[in-house]
Amino acid sequence: MEWAEISVQTSHEAMDLVASILEDLGAAGIAMEDPALVNEYIHSGLWDYTDIPEQKETAVVTVKAYFPTDDRLAGVHRALAEDLAALKTQGVDTAPATIGETRLADEDWAESWKQYFHTEKVGTRIVIQPSWETYEAKAGEVIIRLDPGAAFGTGTHPTTSLCLRAMEKILRPGMTVFDVGTGSGVLAIAAAKLGAGQVTAVDYDPTALHVARENIARNDLTAAIAVGESDILKRVDGRADLITANIIADIILRLFDELEEHLTAGGTLLASGIIAQRAADVRRGAESHGFAVVEEWEEKGWVAMLIRREGER
Fold first, then answer.
1. Residue 297: pLDDT above 90?
2. Rounded distance, CA 179 to CA 187, Å?
3. Cα of 193 vs its chain's centroid, Å
4. Dihedral pair phi/psi, residue 125, rounded to 5°
5. Displacement of CA 249 from its chain's centroid (Å)
6. Residue 246: in which H helix or E strand, if any?
7. What's the alpha-carbon Rg for the chain, to the nearest Å?
8. Residue range 286-297: average pLDDT?
9. Separation of alpha carbons 187 and 150, rounded Å
10. What confidence tens digit (pLDDT) does each residue in 188-228 have?
11. Which of 301, 237, 311, 293 is nearest to 273 (CA)?
12. To which H or E segment does residue 42 belong?
């Protein structure tokens, strides 16, 4: 099978929004070629040696997405061009917004994105380690070994890293945790490694569930994390002390309808994957269901929120 690698050259301001557009268009995987981030890795001290040269031009980011070369590809190009133009009308700096395409064989696609994913410390304790790299853990660190495959959730994207940093603060030993839209399984794995008593990870995408199960096994947590297919929490029984949902605003708004049945008294929803322009919609949705945003963080145009029942802090 042949794949199309569609690339968009854009700004740091717009790169995550462009990635979100490509995801919504059905990309089987996303990679960011960020020269500024390459320089951060070079100077991070995590590598004993690297032959990657320091990048001189750091203003332009290349967002790459992978699509099968079928009869839908032309429509992807048209929709992408329209969505990039719409971002410009909203005042987002998308420059230069250049679209390119390269054809790849299956074996090329399977390996091409790995060059962009390296070991990274996300919070004060959590370290994300790709399955193909080695890393010697330091005292107190929580190591998550991960191969995201065709699913999102490497832990380094702002939507995920915001969640991981919040979980370090709020997760208490013995908690019951539901992870909605688990993707690569990174948040479920983090919950288990931070001491959660019971963890359930669900997704409606069979590919994501396959990747999540592999990553959970890679971290020796198969017995600790239940994995299942579900549209939001419709096939999940019981209540959780913490529900994590790193998805998109529209799905989070649907999730509010199910919180009363699945969240314990005093429980918390940790919601992420919300572009800044939709944050007000999520706040209003929470309030209309008797919930309130008690804490909020923003990074690179993405927002994460801690949400509890009105009056609970």
1. yes
2. 7
3. 18
4. -125, -35
5. 13
6. strand 240-246
7. 19
8. 96
9. 17
10. 999 999 999 999 999 987 777 888 999 999 999 999 999 99
11. 301
12. helix 35-42
